[in-house]
Amino acid sequence: MKRRVLGRSGVTVSELCLGTLNFGWNVGMEQAFEVLDTFRAAGGNFVQTSSVRFGDGAGLASAHASEDYVGRWRRARGIARPELFLATRVMFEGAPTLAGATLEQTVRAACEASLRRLQTDHLDLFLLEWGGANVAIDDLLVSLARLRRAGLIRYFGAGGLPAWRVMEAIHRAVQRDTDRFEVVQADFSLLAQERPERDLLDLCQAYRLGFLARSPLGGGLLAEVDRDEAFSGWRGRRAPLEDGATALTSVRAALAEVAARHDVSLPRVALAWVLAQRAVTAPVVGVASAPQLRELLAATDFTLSTEDLDFLTRVAVRPAAARLPQPSTLVSL
């Protein structure tokens, strides 16, 4: 795998980021270790874990297994800390603070809990996603800057925000003369590449932000399970599409045409398209097995022609024409 520079940080990371949200759900520890070994053997150093929910006055809840598994794996394999770029994603839901705590205390508690599970003294990237939670951006930036000064995190970023919110956060950081977001994560694939996503890519390019493409296979909708043997056991969401059925069928047909021309799988073509897009630092890929990962790793050695790229982009889903189901929150394919 080749390396790419993460935004303006100067740090180089593998061109694929291994998402581990499945770990502990439909991927046991032995399988997880095999996936991590396969990723590292291919030159991967960028691993993202997840702490699914934080807040609501209930403390930590749900999937923390990904952090635990990755921490155990690194220790078991004796991997020196600088050899990995470790990221974790924390999702705030409802009330963004723990009961009786300030936002800063809550953010620090989330960070320290992740550090304990990962068995490390710092995070390379701390990603926050707050959805409907009412988070004061100024307070959040100050809290994150203090974590950075304390050496607990190197960089921080945001997930799931529209371009205008990211721009607002950058503007507020400049006004306060404090650290800013250095990375943005958002859904991006042939099923999510219209104006909102393109606005984010333009923003990332203009302000030298790293961009992590989440769900590069559209939550698995671009992995034809029946045809791609490596994905036969995949548990992604494949619900009927109603209004989006025709549009999705067109995208799959285009992928199949390109895949047949090059004698490769649909997932390989779909991921190669994402890798070729400007401003994309790394797609975040989540798998349930090492064979699935090996198929996706092959996309890093597969280059689409300009004609192929243009053809796929032209047939890509338009949001006004199709409403796609949201990918499962437990799968980051």
From TrEMBL:
Q: Which InterPro entries match?
A: AKR_Detox_Biosynth (IPR050523), NAD(P)_OxRdtase_dom_sf (IPR036812), NADP_OxRdtase_dom (IPR023210)
Classification via PANTHER family: NAD(P)-LINKED OXIDOREDUCTASE SUPERFAMILY PROTEIN, NADH-SPECIFIC METHYLGLYOXAL REDUCTASE-RELATED
Q: Boundaries of each NADP-dependent oxidoreductase domain copy?
A: 15-312
Q: Which is an annotated GO molecular function term of this record?
A: oxidoreductase activity
Q: What keywords is this UniProt entry annotated with?
A: Oxidoreductase
Q: Does the keyword Zinc apply?
A: no
Establish whether keyword Zinc is in the entry.
Answer: no
Organism listed in the record:
Horticoccus luteus
Pfam families named in the record:
Aldo_ket_red
User: Which SUPFAM superfamilies does this one have?
Assistant: NAD(P)-linked oxidoreductase
Source domain of life: Bacteria
Protein name per the record: Aldo/keto reductase
